[in-house]
Amino acid sequence: MDILTQLKQQAEQVEVLSLQNEKTTVEYEANQLKTCTVAETKGTAVRVIRKGRLGFAASTDDTAMDKLAANTLESATYGDNASFSFPDPKPAPIVRTYDKAVADLPIARLVEIGREMLDLILPVEPNARCNISLERSLISASIRNQKGLDVSFKTSPLSLGLEIDRIEGDDVLILYDQLGTTVWERDYLDFARRLVEKLKKASTITSIKPGKMPVLFAPTGTLALGLPLSQGLNGKQVYKGSSPMAGKIGEKLFDEKVTIIDDGTIDGKFASASYDDEGIPHRRNILIEKGVLKSFIYDLKTASQSEVESTGNAARGLFSPPEPSFTNLVIQAGETPLKNILAGIDEGILVEDLLGIGQGNIISGAFSNPLALAFKIEKGEIVGRVKDLSIAGNIYELLKNVGAVSKEAQWVYSTFYAPYILIPEMNVAGKA
Amino acid sequence: MRDKIQEALKRSKADYTEIRIEEKETTRVIFRGKELEVANANIDKGGIVRCLIKDKGWGVTTFNNLDDLLNKTDQAYQCAQVGSVPEPIELASVEPVVKITAVEMKRDFRDIPLSEKKALAERYNQVLLGHSDKIIDTQAAYVDSFTHLILANSEGTYIEQDKPALVISASATARDGDNVQQAHESLANTQGFEYVLDKDELARKAAQKAVELLEARPVKAGQYPVVVDQMLAGVFIHEAFGHLSEADFVYENPKAREMMTMGRRFGKGILNAYDDGSIPNLRGTTLYDDEGTPARRNWLIRDGELVGRLHSRQTAAKMGEKASGNARAINYRFAPIVRMTNTAIDNGTTSFEDMIKDIELGIYACDAYGGQTQLENFSFSSGYGYMIRNGKIAEMVKDVILAGNLFATLENIDAIGNDFKWLNTGGGCGKGNQAPLPVGMGAPHIRIQNVVIGGE
Q1: CATH label, B2-215, candidates 3.40.50.300, 3.30.2290.10, 3.40.630.30, 3.40.640.10
Q2: Is the pTM of this model over 0.90?
Q3: Is the ipTM of this complex over 0.90?
Q4: Does A129 touch chain B (CB under 8 A)?
Q5: Span B104-121, pLDDT tens digits
Q6: What is the pLDDT of residues A85-140, one digit of tens each?
Q7: For residue A169, what is the domain's CATH number?
Q8: Chain B closest CA to A90's CA: distance in Å?
Q9: Which residues fall within 8 angstroms of residue A95, CB to CB, at 6 or more apart?
């Protein structure tokens, strides 16, 4: 018997997620094509609400469905009181997440794309060591519940990851970025070209006197600001009271140049889909608008705890229950052309990459990281790479006074869209 | 299953074929705040086939359907055909092993009802919540997993082993206005349910630390002599040095190889470090690695000099060294890569009192929040710290983040404590896409001169 039908007889509410994923990965290690992998995953995750209590279990053993059903019910015996209901079917926006051109990409083409990347990098930097991962998946998922919700989606994620290591003497430079998309992207090497540009710029090394100075975060560097912010905007942290933004909806917390949006409805983007992982339609959630806190993100459970509606932000792996999670996180581009921002800096640094982003007590907004790649800006010009520096601050202070947000913005790390952000004054530490 | 596996290995056209089948049941109870977040059991069963064609490359298939091993082996062989390595890939020789072992636990956690595991996590959560009204969020977790693992290869190895693991952890978040602080404690064990009972003290410690941190001032950035506790020293040797000892970082890279030349000075003569997967009942213990190589003690630094590194069969062959028992995979979805097992700084001779007594102004950095390395550059967050003033431990400080260059930092270790301990924490290590892999760490207190501490 179908597990939904079976469990409907034993519990008030039932939800069944079926997941099938076929992923092909081609990996270059140190410029050499070494491994090709085909990974198939097939599994079922079930949630029930029985006598008001929530149970969850998952399995990849399709010969053990009875055990899965029993595990789910046992889980509900000790489960938490569930104050929410699995959703009714609702119409969702049409979001493009499947492209036959991606789904049908032959292994040979993935191999060729890797080769194209190497051809971009090695002529410029023969000493570079590139690790490239080219990954094409075909995911079919369906979510069904006792209310008749039955959504299924097919996505074709393509992810091209590129890490470039350059070691010269005791100097180590490691650059990483990735392109993530669900539809074929014509300029799929654009992100790799940007890395090559950084690599070229990094060959001039200069120095700067540590101290207070303007710090310009490049799109990759803004992750240091975006990550603590995204934790604070997570409805779960808000409900638990650990977000410094809890209870401050409607307040102006940041500079008016700061607008942040979570958007799972953008065609072809890596975290896009018509529905979230509980079958709630995705939508565009404006979280911070011109510095004013507008909303947090929620899944069903945290929404009901907070007495609001789910924002369509449930995400889950097969073996874990849903959690509120960002889809595509967009820091909105500003008004100022990058060259004008640079022109206004007499002496400061441009931060491309930081070490250890996300570690430490980031929910508080505090961060402190060594700079993995940073450049000195002198009289409006980028004059060379600076090493052995670190920055520290608290985003809840820093983002109150933003010098400028650039007109130019980029997708970085697949799901993050960000401009250049100027903080007029920060402490830059280093060996004096 | 054994017959099916051996049939598939026999029929494989590859130069080397390896099959790993894993059956894992995990029970998880997590309380967060006042609520039970999860109490459940998951079943994960699957397999991986790895084929090597020496003059081409590796082909891998992973799958949940175990009925089709012949087909999956053939598909892996087809994948291997895609590769194009310039030189043939060789594997260091390892004596084939045939061994079937079953683990015996004192109180087997698989026989404990979910209700009892839930009650245990709930009790630790109550300790966290009850500690202070400043505690606004908690997490108390109980996680056990039992893995039955079969590893076989075309050279005749056939190993069946059980891997039990138990972890309890307690995290507390304390808040005072906009000031939010967190602290975390955990304990891991491989021997049985009774070892995670009566650990109220662990939860109390997490809660107490979070509340104390509310009063702590951020550390002032600068260069200090730093005394590092066992926990942070363990994380340091794992993160900053251990990862460089993983041969896959250097085996293809002449420059990195130069950096990690055997005999290079890595510190003063007092410094000794090793990795050892053969010590019973530690978190990273792995008697046979995921290529079937037996575990052993691998000295990495002896008397301040680099003397060894960690290998898979492939990296060992490439560098003309011996397989070290460090090829590990987090589960059947991944091929093994070079990983640490239990990594340690060996015991020294200095007492803690002697270590701090001459420090006029310094920092005692405790516990680890996490760390990251980029080859020789590292950054670590300590959980909390204290100023050392005039040879005495003084006020607590927070946001203590150590950053620097590995070589300079190791060279600056000028005292090693006589208080070695293994840290039985529940943490795991991440590398590539493979996280968390259970690893063990151990160290005594160490003192490092001239450490750059970030901060405001």
Answers
A1: 3.30.2290.10
A2: no
A3: no
A4: yes
A5: 898 999 999 999 999 999
A6: 999 999 999 999 999 999 999 999 999 999 999 999 999 999 899 999 999 999 99
A7: 3.30.2290.10
A8: 27
A9: A264, A265, A266, A267, A272, A273, A274, A282
